[in-house]
């Protein structure tokens, strides 16, 4: 799902057409959603914890939901339980513990995020380094150490063990925010 592809932020149908021609696999509708941008996948944002918004987005036919803190947070303690939806979700994280907790709640894609609009990719790179570094350390642990590590990062043991075995997150992992061009995307470490 979306491996090696680009998701572009768009406002207008013309931007969506340009993104599609440039090879984007999906677009993030930032404002109004013109009906004529349906050729590719369309992603829409829902506030963290606002399951009714997500139900509405699913009902009107979006292809993905981005549960995001870019919008006002509805419930800072509880993310949406994605297991109650057919539509795939993407959520942001800053570290391995957060990523695995989001995966436990049913997320299909994990995003590490920089600062959008100002071209600052450093936060996204920092978060990718943190996650990939923890996974490298995890791969060298024995089972007893994995159990303690799972407690330390407050993550489900079974997902920590699965991540150790895979050597990567068990879902698609991508970076966003401040990624402006091919050189920016090449500065993020690869999971392969």
UniProtKB/TrEMBL annotation:
<dbReference type="GO" id="GO:0036381">
    <property type="term" value="F:pyridoxal 5'-phosphate synthase (glutamine hydrolysing) activity"/>
</dbReference>
<keyword id="KW-0456">Lyase</keyword>
<comment type="function">
    <text>Catalyzes the formation of pyridoxal 5'-phosphate from ribose 5-phosphate (RBP), glyceraldehyde 3-phosphate (G3P) and ammonia. The ammonia is provided by PDX2. Can also use ribulose 5-phosphate and dihydroxyacetone phosphate as substrates, resulting from enzyme-catalyzed isomerization of RBP and G3P, respectively. Also plays an indirect role in resistance to singlet oxygen-generating photosensitizers.</text>
</comment>
<protein>
    <recommendedName>
        <fullName>pyridoxal 5'-phosphate synthase (glutamine hydrolyzing)</fullName>
        <ecNumber>4.3.3.6</ecNumber>
    </recommendedName>
</protein>
<comment type="similarity">
    <text>Belongs to the PdxS/SNZ family.</text>
</comment>
<dbReference type="InterPro" id="IPR013785">
    <property type="entry name" value="Aldolase_TIM"/>
</dbReference>
<dbReference type="GO" id="GO:0008615">
    <property type="term" value="P:pyridoxine biosynthetic process"/>
</dbReference>
<dbReference type="GO" id="GO:0042823">
    <property type="term" value="P:pyridoxal phosphate biosynthetic process"/>
</dbReference>
<keyword id="KW-0704">Schiff base</keyword>
<comment type="pathway">
    <text>Cofactor biosynthesis; pyridoxal 5'-phosphate biosynthesis.</text>
</comment>
<dbReference type="InterPro" id="IPR033755">
    <property type="entry name" value="PdxS/SNZ_N"/>
</dbReference>
<dbReference type="GO" id="GO:0006520">
    <property type="term" value="P:amino acid metabolic process"/>
</dbReference>
<feature type="domain" description="PdxS/SNZ N-terminal">
    <location>
        <begin position="42"/>
        <end position="176"/>
    </location>
</feature>
<feature type="domain" description="PdxS/SNZ N-terminal">
    <location>
        <begin position="1"/>
        <end position="41"/>
    </location>
</feature>
<dbReference type="Pfam" id="PF01680">
    <property type="entry name" value="SOR_SNZ"/>
</dbReference>
<keyword id="KW-0663">Pyridoxal phosphate</keyword>
<dbReference type="InterPro" id="IPR011060">
    <property type="entry name" value="RibuloseP-bd_barrel"/>
</dbReference>
<dbReference type="InterPro" id="IPR001852">
    <property type="entry name" value="PdxS/SNZ"/>
</dbReference>
């Amino acid at each position: 799902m979306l491996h090696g592809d680009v998701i572009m932020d768009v406002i207008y149908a013309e931007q969506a057409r340009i993104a599609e021609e440039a090879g984007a696999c999906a677009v993030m509708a930032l404002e109004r959603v013109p009906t004529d941008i349906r050729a590719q996948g369309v992603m829409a944002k829902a506030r963290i914890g606002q399951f009714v918004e997500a139900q509405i987005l699913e009902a009107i036919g979006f292809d993905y939901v981005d549960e995001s803190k870019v919008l006002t947070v509805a419930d800072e303690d509880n993310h949406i339980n994605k297991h109650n939806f057919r539509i795939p979700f993407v959520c942001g994280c800053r570290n391995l513990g957060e990523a695995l907790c989001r995966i436990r709640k049913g997320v299909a894609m994990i995003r590490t995020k920089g600062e959008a609009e100002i071209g600052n990719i450093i936060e996204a790179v920092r978060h990718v380094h943190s996650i990939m570094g923890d996974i490298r350390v995890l791969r060298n642990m024995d089972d007893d150490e994995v159990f303690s590590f799972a407690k330390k990062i407050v993550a489900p043991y079974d997902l920590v063990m699965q991540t150790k075995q895979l050597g990567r997150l068990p879902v698609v992992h991508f970076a966003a925010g401040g990624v402006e061009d091919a050189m920016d995307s090449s500065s993020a470490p690869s999971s392969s």
